[in-house]
Write a structure and sequence with these properties.
Blueprint lengths: L4 H5 L2 H5 L31 E8 L2 E9 L2 E8 L6 E9 L2 E9 L6 E8 L5 E9 L7 E9 L6 E10 L7 E10 L2 E11 L12 E8 L13 H10 L14 E5 L7 E4 L3 E2 L5 E3 L5 E7 L1
C-alpha cells in the first residue's frame, strides 16, 4: 500500500479531503441515488457529481465526466506537491482498469485491473506498480470479502510479488468495522507470507485507521464510482472513508509502535440538499456538476 503512506497521512486540512481503450462507454452508477441522508426533504436532490475541491482557490482534487460516464480524477497526494491522476478504462460498460500517474517525475505508477459487480463493488483487483528503481516495483493481487448481503466490505487480502519475483512474499490484510453503513475502522496488518503462501501474523505490524463521528449528510465521493476510490484507498488506506455514504468528522491514524497516533478533525457546511459545500471556515470548497 505504499511504503511512504504514513508520511502522507500527516497532511492537516489537505488530508481531510483526501483524500484507455474506450472512455466513452457509460458506467451506470446513479450520481445522486445514495443513502447519504436527505433528512426527509420531500424535494429530491438534483442529479450531480463532485467536480472539484479547492483550498483558497488552489485545486486539490478535480474529476472529469463524459456525460454521465466518469473519466478521470486528479488528487493531491497528501502534503506533497505531487498530484495523481487516475484514468478509468471501460470494459463491457464497467470500469475495468484504473491507472494512477503522478505529476512528479519518478513517481510510482499504479496500474489497476478491477472487476466490479452490478452494485459497483470491487470483488477482485490486480495492481502493477512501476517504480523508478526496479527493486521497488511490485505486483499485488487482492481478494475482497463482503458480508452475506454483498453490501459491506468486510476484508481485503493483498498478496504481493516484489522486485520482479514470481512468488508472493508480502501481504496486507485489511479488516473493516462498521457503524451503520459507514466504515468506522480499517485494521491493516502488514507482514510476510509463510512458505505455503498464507499470512504470517507473527510478522505483522498493524496500522489502524479510524473514521469517527459520522454526520448524516451525503458523502460527496458517493456521487462518483466506488471502484475508483476503492483503488485509491488500496494505495492510500487513510481514504477508505470515501466509500462510506456519510462524512466522518474525525480521522485518527494509529501506526505501529512507537510512532504516535495522528488525529485530523474534519468540518463541513452543507447546502439545502445536505451536500457539503465547504469546511466550517469556508477555506475548502466543494464544487459539483449538475447532470
Amino acid at each position: 500500500m505504499g511504503k511512504n503512506y504514513l508520511f502522507k497521512v500527516i497532511t492537516g486540512v489537505f488530508f481531510g479531503l483526501l483524500v484507455s481503450c474506450d472512455n466513452s462507454s457509460s458506467d451506470q452508477f446513479e450520481p445522486s441515488a445514495n443513502n447519504g441522508g436527505n433528512n426527509g426533504n420531500t424535494t429530491p436532490p438534483p442529479a450531480r457529481v463532485l467536480e472539484k475541491i479547492t483550498s483558497n482557490s488552489t485545486i486539490l482534487e478535480e474529476y472529469t465526466m463524459n456525460g454521465t460516464a466518469f473519466q478521470k480524477g486528479m488528487l493531491k497526494d497528501g502534503s506533497t506537491n505531487n498530484y495523481y491522476t487516475g484514468t478509468a478504462t471501460y470494459i463491457n460498460n464497467k470500469i475495468g482498469k484504473i491507472k494512477f500517474i503522478g505529476s512528479i517525475t519518478g513517481s510510482m505508477v499504479y496500474d489497476f485491473s478491477v472487476s466490479e459487480n452490478s452494485k459497483g463493488n470491487v470483488y477482485s483487483a490486480t495492481c502493477t506498480a512501476t517504480a523508478a528503481v526496479a527493486l521497488d516495483s511490485f505486483i499485488s493481487d487482492y481478494i475482497f470479502t463482503y458480508d452475506a448481503d454483498g453490501k459491506k466490505l468486510v476484508k481485503i487480502l493483498e498478496k504481493r510479488k516484489v522486485a520482479g519475483n514470481s512468488a508472493y512474499s508480502l501481504f496486507t490484510e485489511s479488516t473493516f468495522t462498521y457503524i451503520g453503513d459507514n466504515i468506522f475502522k480499517a485494521d491493516c496488518a502488514k507482514g510476510t507470507l509463510t512458505g505455503t503462501g498464507d499470512p504470517n501474523m507473527v510478522t505483522a505490524k498493524r496500522t489502524v485507521y479510524s473514521y469517527q463521528n459520522y454526520d448524516s449528510k451525503i458523502n460527496p465521493y458517493s456521487t462518483l464510482p466506488k471502484s475508483f476510490f476503492t483503488a485509491w484507498s488500496l494505495i492510500r488506506p487513510e481514504n477508505f472513508y470515501r466509500i462510506s455514504p456519510n462524512n466522518p468528522t474525525s480521522v485518527f491514524v494509529m501506526p505501529p509502535a512507537p510512532a504516535p497516533g495522528v488525529d485530523t478533525p474534519m468540518t463541513y457546511l452543507y447546502d439545502a440538499f445536505n451536500y457539503p459545500v465547504s469546511d466550517k471556515n469556508q477555506v475548502l470548497k466543494y464544487a459539483y456538476r449538475t447532470l
